[in-house]
Amino acid sequence: MSALLETENLSIAFGGITAVDQVSLAVSPGQIHSVIGPNGAGKTTLFNLISGLYQPSGGRVNLAGEEVTGLPPEQLARRGLSRSFQNLQIFFRMSAVENVMVGCHRHERTGILSHLLALPNVRAENRNSREIAMAQLARVGLADLAEKEAGSLSYGALKRLEIARALATEPRILLLDEPAAGCNAVETEEIDRVIHDVAKAGIAILLVEHDMRLVMRISDEITVLERGRKLVSGKPDAVREDPRVIAAYLGTFGSEEANRA
Amino acid sequence: MPELLQFAFSGLTVGAVYALVALGFTLIYNASDVVNFAQGEFVMLGGMITVFLHLAGLPLPIAAVAAILITVLVGLALYAFAIDLARGSGAVQIIIITIGASIFLRGVAQVIFDKRFHALPAWFGSEPIRLGGAAILPQSLVVLAGAALIVALIFLMIDRTILGRAILATATNRLAARLVGIPVRRIVALSFALSAAIGAIAGLLVTPITLTSYDVGTLMALKGFAAAMLGGMGSAPGAIVGGVLLGLAESFGAGLISSKYKDAIAFLIILFTLFVRPQGLFGKRSTERV
Amino acid sequence: MERLLRNRWALVLALALVLAALPLVFPSNYYFRVAALVNIFALAAIGLNLLMGYAGQVSLGHAGFMGIGAYAVAIGASRFGLNGAVAMLAGAAIAGLLAFLVGRPILRLKGHYLAVATLGLGLLISMTLTNEAGWTGGPDGMAVPRLELFGLRLRGPDTWYMISAGALVLGVILALNLIESPTGRAMRAIHDSEIAARVVGVDVAAYKLKIFVISAIYASIAGSLMAFLNGHITPDGTAGFLRSVELVTMVVLGGLGSVLGAIVGAAMLVILPQALTIFHEYEHLLLGLIIMASMILLPRGVIPSLLARLRGGGA
User: Fold this and answer.
1) What is the pLDDT of residues A178-224, one digit of tens each?
2) Contact: B111, C286; criterion CB under 8 Å
3) Which end of chain B is more exposed for a tag (fewer CB within 10 A), N or C?
4) A1-80+171-261 domain in CATH 3.30.70.240?
């Protein structure tokens, strides 16, 4: 299977510190590829590079065989790449379903003059986007909360709302930044199910997650980052047994996990 | 050549006043995130109160000191009865409160004083000093020296005293400052008092040159705000550089291009500076963390 | 959705009814004049609220666009012999074009920097109007020729009350339509999180620009109407910094992100000074106090605070 998303030697430096250092990885359609590593390893920075929020200082990003290095996020979204955020980025003053309807934006075709005049085609489009948004909300189990103001939803629900919003863009690849962080066991299970379901639909998934049980359970492939560099990459079982990974985790991450427990 | 010197000198004089107003903006902004559009009224009060206390028979120096003290009380009152009550409101709401305060203070000045222009005598006479073909008012030198002194004092205070450290800590991280026992609200009140004093002194310094009236504050606030943004909001050196640059831009713009459009030229320069450096000259670029 | 739609039209209907009923109780032309001013400022405030309350971008120079609209009808009619209505459209086009040209670099700025840049833009416009005395009559302003439409000379505050009321209702309808459209969702999304809007494909810069242009056109039309109503215009009265501040205050006082709020805010700030003139020299003092007090007591604005109370939600 050919890769949908590839990074080649992707790098960025902030004031002399190389936060991401020559990282190469590949994700294929339907594959779940996890990026793990201690805090500060550069996982979120890698996501910000791939999704166009930061300009890389070296290397390249390919999406479906085309180079997209440094393209702004809105253009990447049009090419089928969307993401969720570690720190929630929710449209708090809009209802849950409206949040997801914004995700339909790239498929909406009517112009601003029609919007001002509320022409019939706009009303049809509004209805259509709402239907798509409702379907995505149902997909992540939030259909009941559709009309609630997003600001009033629980943390776990907002995590899933972000996924629904990203799915509404009909992505070919989805970047999920710690979707289960701060979620309870039930919510984590729900997110596990959603990720599986999305991958099964043929969407490539790049995942950053601290919940190791979740990662080991659902990943097809794992890349371990340490201090911005790729330490190891491979199947979950191989990564789990790798002495370098164990060393890295016992050093920093193990104690942190213990603190969390 | 003499003209250029003349432009530079008048630009520096006006710029020094803008710098003081901008410094007042910056002090309050750093302590509290409040953009205080009543800052210009402090300048007006400094001048107007002195004029009227002097007319009432007080000797000038005493009238001036009294004017500064009264303006400081006004600054404290603004904090206690308006800003402090609106804690937790959004930035736009607070700006509108300070605009309301500036309209209010103008209204008060118009009732207590009058709507005419008033002058103060120059501190050391008004015989121009000739320098390289340019005529310089002695009062201009007073403005420059006074502004330099205030700036030096403020920087010394922030750098050398415990109080200054507390102000700095509050500006850097309000929550952390509170956690280590700094009385943050008192520090914010103090920043209002200091800004009021700086504004009043600026008014005292400049009134002999530019005259004063109940409504000079609006333009002062506008220029001071613009200078602070040009320098980079929250940067004290930026406020001073911004103020001086704005003064020079106006002066050279008026002299070399068009006196009618001097404010326009100044704002064009600000616009282009911000297009190139959206965070102002000395401002820190903020990276969004996600 | 159905309920929302009904609410939207209920608001328009209620507004139209009130505007139609008011003349029945107006005792004199003075009331028509003040009410027409309310309509006109409400129109400008609604446009500004789209930018500030919905898209979250502040403008401290919006009166500049009112000035363009006002001077377009005055200059268009007196210097180019244009029909007033045509001149009004030309003014709207000029305001929109200017907003389009300067909007992109200005709207890249954030927060206070955006405030100072828009302030500068407004100042540049009012300064041009003040200084190009050959065209504009300078600081003392110029007369505005009466509008003639279909052979009728439109004059008198009652006529302009009707026209401005019609314009206001139209402005409300268009704004409400926009808010509930893909554009409206995009701009509200930008307000809450630009980054999230971008990763789902919203071209943030393009949308900010579109809303800026629309709000400039609202202000320009309002400026033209004000010129026709007053018959005489000055740079400070139409485009000055204090006018810009007034517009922002209307929006925030009435309620950011509320179309009805913009109307209420405009009514408050137009009627208050009129009412306060009986206090003569205490007018400004009281106006300042009232602005401060209402902002301290109702920081979210009149209409949102009222809605929250009706729902029984304290927060």
Assistant:
1) 999 888 888 899 999 999 999 999 999 999 998 888 999 999 999 99
2) no
3) N
4) no
